[in-house]
Write a structure and sequence with these properties.
Structural class: alpha/beta
Radius of gyration: 17 Å
Bound molecules: zinc ion
Helix content: 25-40%
CATH class of the largest domain: Alpha Beta
Number of helices: 8
Strand content: 15-25%
Distance between the termini: 46 Å
CATH architecture of the largest domain: 3-Layer(aba) Sandwich
Order of helices and strands: HHEEEHHEHHEHEEHE
Number of strands: 8
CATH topology of the largest domain: Rossmann fold
Length: 218
């Protein structure tokens, strides 16, 4: 295994997802990008139906090199970025957070087939490996929705309302809900509500980047 890692490092050295510089195995960012990363993750609290709320954390803003990295990951087939991004997300979790598994925001099945992968699923898988928690593949998208970033805030909530459901019961489970980018949070709210309906007891959302406030994308 050690020899395999040495060989892999030589053939495919791990690279910083933000600047492309070679990094030591086990490091997600190069020292320069690590230094520039916001010291504390972005944290937002979104209201949910039934008086509940959803805390969302994200280590990166959605601008500049962070935005480019996510673009390459999401649209240009750079699946290998899931590992460093997933590690960054795992490290952004507040200390002492209690979770039994990780769910993720799924794509519509035809969109997944067209892209070849589900970017949030890849991030969740890497986070699961990092945290030693199981991946809970329960959320399904029940219908096609319009692309969220082309809609106004009010229409975004309407667009995804009821568009997700939990296929398997998650009674009594405390889950992390993983997505790539949070903007208005409408999709995360729809997914969190579906998980609560399926019996989850506590949900915290974790995204790679926050697109509201600093690094605003709207
Ligand atoms: Zn870097």
């Amino acid at each position: 295994m050690k020899l395999l890692n040495i060989l892999l490092d030589f053939l495919l050295p791990p690279r910083c997802p933000l600047c492309g510089q070679v990094v030591a195995r086990g490091e997600s960012l190069c020292p320069g990008c690590k230094e520039k990363l916001p010291k504390a993750p972005y944290t937002r609290v979104l209201p949910l139906a039934g008086g509940k709320s959803l805390r969302v954390v994200a280590p990166m803003p959605y601008r500049d090199e962070y935005r480019h990295a996510l673009h390459r990951f999401k649209f240009l087939g750079k699946r290998s970025l899931a590992k460093p991004l997933g590690q960054l997300m795992a490290h952004a979790l507040p200390k002492g957070i209690a979770a039994d598994g990780l769910a993720f925001v799924p794509l519509w099945e035809k969109d997944r087939a067209a892209r070849g992968y589900d970017q949030s699923g890849l991030l969740a898988k890497e986070m699961a490996a990092c945290l030693g928690l199981p991946l809970v593949e329960t959320l399904q998208k029940t219908r096609k929705t319009q692309v969220q970033h082309q809609l106004s805030k009010a229409l975004r909530a309407e667009n995804v309302r009821g568009a997700y459901r939990a296929e398997k019961p998650v009674a009594g489970r405390r889950l992390l809900l993983v997505d790539d980018i949070v903007t208005t949070g409408a999709t995360l709210r729809a997914c969190a509500e579906a998980l609560y309906q399926a019996g989850a007891t506590e949900i915290t959302a974790v995204c790679a980047a926050n697109a509201v406030g600093d690094g605003r994308a709207e």
